Amino acid sequence: MRMELARDGQRYVQTPRTAHSRGAVTYLKILRTVTRDTTWGGWRFEGELMRPGDCIGFPSHRLLAIECVGSDRRGYGHRRSETLYILWRFEDGAWCELGRSSSANRDWTLDLGPIARRALHPPRPILIDPDGLAERLLRAVDEEIEPLDAPAKKAVLNAVYDRVAARVVA
């Protein structure tokens, strides 16, 4: 979904609008942060509320938005209808869907919260040289086992191998 409009020499982008029903209760929130909420066991999405389909200034950075699309209206009696939520990212001039979840309560935050958190705060790149580190570790192992006889060296290396393999799997 790529939307770019030009007004008064300014560049604008239209926010996603998934709901087709005019009567649907919908909203969109441009996210600033997503945090774990320990009071009720979900995730808290903080940001600026707006109507889906509104225009915003063309961002110079990656944006994240959560859209409340509305209810499926199939609830009756004591059964509540589910509401659909879609997580969007604006990057490289287009809105891309990162995930969607629907629930009759706040359970949708458990699905989309971790995804949004990772999208807002991507992991930092590893700043080590894996080959150099492996060589240093092997030199330390060689120094430790150098005085041992061949069967003892074999026993130690097998024990180290088992522990390293278990860490790789974990």
* Large-scale geometry: elongated
| Number of helical stretches of at least 4 residues | 3
* Termini Cα gap: 39 Å
SSE string, helices as H and strands as E: EEEEEEEEHHH
Largest sheet: 5 strands, antiparallel
How much helicity do the residues have?
Answer: 25-40%
Which structural class do you get from the secondary structure elements? alpha+beta
Q: What topology, given as strand order, has the largest sheet?
A: 4-3-6-7-8
Strand segment count: 8
Q: pLDDT under 50 segments (min length 5)?
A: none
Q: Radius of gyration, rounded?
A: 26 Å
Question: What is the mean pLDDT?
Answer: 86
Count of individual domains: 2
- What is the strand content? 25-35%
What does this entry look like structurally?
It is a single chain. This protein is α+β, with helices and mostly antiparallel strands. The chain has two domains: 5-120, no CATH class; 130-169, no CATH class. 29% of the residues lie in helices and 35% in strands. The protein has three helices and eight strands; from the N terminus they run ββββββββααα. It has helices spanning 108-120, 130-145, 150-169, and strands at residues 5-7, 10-14, 27-37, 42-50, 55-57, 63-71, 83-91, 94-103. A hairpin with a 2-residue loop joins β7 and β8 (94-103).
